Amino acid sequence: MTCYLCGNNEFVKRMGIVRDDPSLEIVECRNCGLVTLSSLEHIRDGHYEDSGMHGVDLPSMESWLQECHADDLRRCGMLRSQLVNRRVLDFGCGAGGFVRFAQELAGEIAAVEPERRVRDYWGERMTIHSGLDDAGGDYDLITAFHVFEHLSDPIAVLTTLTRHLGAGGRIVIEVPSSEDALLTFYESAAFQRFTYWSQHLFLFNPETLRRVAAAAGMRVVAVQQFQRYPLSNHLFWLSRGMPGGHHKWEFLNSRALEEAYGAALASVGKCDTLIAHLELV
After folding, report:
1. What are the strands of the beta sheet with 139-145, ordered from one edge?
2. Of 104, 154, 167, 160, nearest to 134 (Cα)?
3. Would you say 98 and 75 are in contact if contact means Cβ atoms under 8 Å apart?
4. Which end of the chain, N or C, is less surrounded by CB atoms within 10 Å?
5. Is the pLDDT of residue 276 over 70?
């Protein structure tokens, strides 16, 4: 096995298990820090068209949209100035909630999503392509929220996305962080047995994201640390060893506390999410 990014063949095995396939190991490159699974062979061409990866916990499109509602609104707010009257493409749009809200701001917006049930659900209400070949080009903004961790060749995909970008355009990528505090600071054994998933082929840190961008001919404008899950969630993991603390201990949730906790984790690079803003070199 060699590292996808740097070609190194020395890895450290991470603690934890892949929750839906314990035969896979989680390994971290000793040289560049890329976290990956010990094998990617379970992801074949066409895998995500009918993967059903959201179909157990979120069996209906409505439940999937509701689960993503807060993130969809957050992303629209974060990118508002880049959305207004611009040509936008959301690559890997998932349930389509971001596109639903962003189309009220964008001059033109389209999406790419291989999962058939998403395209069937929206029909003519939303322009969703099954692949990039039909998506057109000259976009001012291309977004990819929690997509790149699913890709077996993220550099090749990012390179292809650059060909759909207009002059002066930007690509914004959001991914889970391999340095999540629950994994690398608190070292929650329960979380380490829960969070790793066979559908997540890579986990990135700021440096490995920069390497992906550079290999695709892009310049990193910024890599933001962002904390999606609040202190209540982390306390519940550490106390009870279970997910869902942000719902069960909702009384601990407040905007001021969430912002302060997120800023504290960001200051030491331990947020659960990274947001990369990329431009062509």
Report:
1. 128-129, 108-112, 87-91, 139-145, 165-176, 273-280, 218-226
2. 160
3. yes
4. C
5. yes
50-60 pLDDT tens trace: 766 665 566 78
Say how far apart CA 15 and CA 234 lie, in whole Å.
18
Q: What 8-state DSSP symbol labels residue 84?
A: B
Question: What confidence tens digit (pLDDT) does each residue in 168-201 have?
Answer: 999 999 999 999 999 999 999 999 999 999 999 9
CA dist., res. 213 & res. 162, Å (int) = 10
Instruction: Please report the sign of the dihedral spanned by the C-alpha atoms of residue 129, residue 132, residue 133, residue 139.
Output: positive
Segment 235-259, tens digit of pLDDT: 999 999 999 999 999 999 999 999 9
d(CA 63, CA 20): 22
Number of DSSP helices (H) and strands (E) in the chain, helices first = 11, 11
Query: Is the Cβ–Cβ distance between 272 and 227 less than 8 Å?
Result: yes
pLDDT, residue 248, reads 97
Q: Do the strands 128-129 and 165-176 form a parallel or antiparallel pair, or are they unpaired?
A: unpaired
- CA 98 distance to own-chain centroid: 13
Tokens representing residue 82 in the block: 């880049």
Bridge partners, residue 26, by sequence: 37
Q: Show the CA angle centred on residue 21, arms to residues 17 and 23, nearest 5°.
A: 75
Pairing between strand 273-280 and 218-226? antiparallel
